[in-house]
Write a structure and sequence with these properties.
The chain is an all-alpha fold. It has a domain of 190 residues: MetI-like (MetI-like fold, Orthogonal Bundle), CATH 1.10.3720.10. Strands 1-2 form a two-stranded antiparallel sheet. It starts with 17 loop residues before the first helix and ends in a 13-residue tail after the last helix. The C terminus is likely disordered.
Length: 327
């Protein structure tokens, strides 16, 4: 008896569909970003400690601005509502100090940026002896601000000061720090003398980072020195200029040392800028720490607004997504 084995018909080949012809894309695991990175995990303890050290004093400062602070027998706060805010914002002397602070701020920042840019351009084009000249230029910024203030005070002293004797020989008024009309410009010039080298150093680093090929291409195209400076060099230095502006602006708003060492706010409150007014509220006038907290918060708000303005005008502008590109 024979058993027949039936053979199955051969399978017909099925043509692959267009979807099967497409190469399959393998999903790549994207590297973690933001809070999931290993770097952030390593920095998390330090960042947590810094945030605690920053936010606790800030919360206490806000609480002090709405309270009367007593320091005898321990620190105690008595809630007074908006009394501190209305007293400070309604004080004409505070607004006069703010006006003097704005004049002081604008004058020193503008002069330091202009003089620092000029010094950086000269040092950048200097081929021989640049290190020696740079070391000499940077000397003032290594001095303590109190020493700079005392040095300026002694040099302008009407009896023993060298500058005062030169002014007397020229037939000019020698007692510049005693005149309300000249005290603030003189104090501002001392600040400019000390911190212009820092701006020059920052801008010199920015000039050194400009690609030489770009400058050579501009020279080949027939652009002059000033045209190249305005159209190519300065636009590429925008981040560096922003750093210099932020560093000097945040320092100029709260500057205290030089003014205290030279005039202590005088004569006739001609140099009493807002940090000195805050010092008077906190330590001289019946220990009004609540009003001092209000001034501190207004200075913080002014610094934040100023930083946002600088970031808006000098920060890098990122281009938006191009049309027709991949999402």
């Amino acid at each position: 008896m024979s058993v027949g084995i039936s053979k199955a018909p051969p399978a017909t080949a099925v043509a692959p569909s267009p979807a099967d012809r497409r190469p399959r894309r393998t999903r790549r695991r994207r590297p973690p970003r933001g809070l999931k990175t290993f770097e952030f995990a390593m920095m998390a303890p330090a960042l947590t400690l810094l945030s605690v050290l920053s936010w606790i004093p800030f919360v206490i400062l806000v609480a002090m601005s709405f309270a009367k602070v007593r320091t005898l027998g321990g620190v105690s706060l008595t809630f007074t509502g908006l009394d501190n805010w209305t007293a400070v914002l309604g004080d004409p002397a505070v607004w006069a100090s703010w006006w003097r602070s704005l004049i002081y701020f604008v004058s020193i920042v503008a002069l330091e940026m202009l003089l620092g840019l000029g010094a950086a351009l000269v040092l950048h084009r200097l081929l021989r002896g640049r290190s020696l000249v740079l070391s000499i230029v940077l000397l003032p910024m290594f001095l303590a601000p109190v020493m700079v203030g005392l040095l300026g005070r002694f040099m302008l002293d009407s009896t023993i000061g060298l500058y005062a004797q030169l002014l007397q020989a020229a037939g000019l008024d020698a007692d510049l720090l005693a005149s309300p009309a000249t005290a603030l410009p003189v104090v501002a010039s001392i600040d400019v003398w000390q911190w212009t080298p820092l701006v020059a150093l920052i801008l010199l680093a920015g000039l050194s980072s400009v690609p030489p090929s770009t400058l050579e291409a501009a020279t080949v195209d027939g652009a002059g020195y000033f045209r190249t400076l305005v159209s190519i060099t300065l636009p590429q230095m925008r981040p560096i200029i922003l750093v210099a502006l932020l560093v000097r602006s945040m320092d100029a708003i709260r500057y205290f040392d030089i003014v205290t060492a030279t005039t202590n706010g005088g004569p006739a409150d001609a140099t009493k800028i807002i940090p000195l007014k805050l010092y008077e509220y906190a330590f001289r006038f019946n220990n009004q720490l609540g009003k001092a907290a209000v001034l501190g918060l207004t200075m913080l708000a002014f610094s934040i607004v100023l930083a946002r303005l600088f970031l808006r005008f000098f920060g890098e502008r990122t281009a938006g997504p191009t049309q027709g590109g991949d999402a």
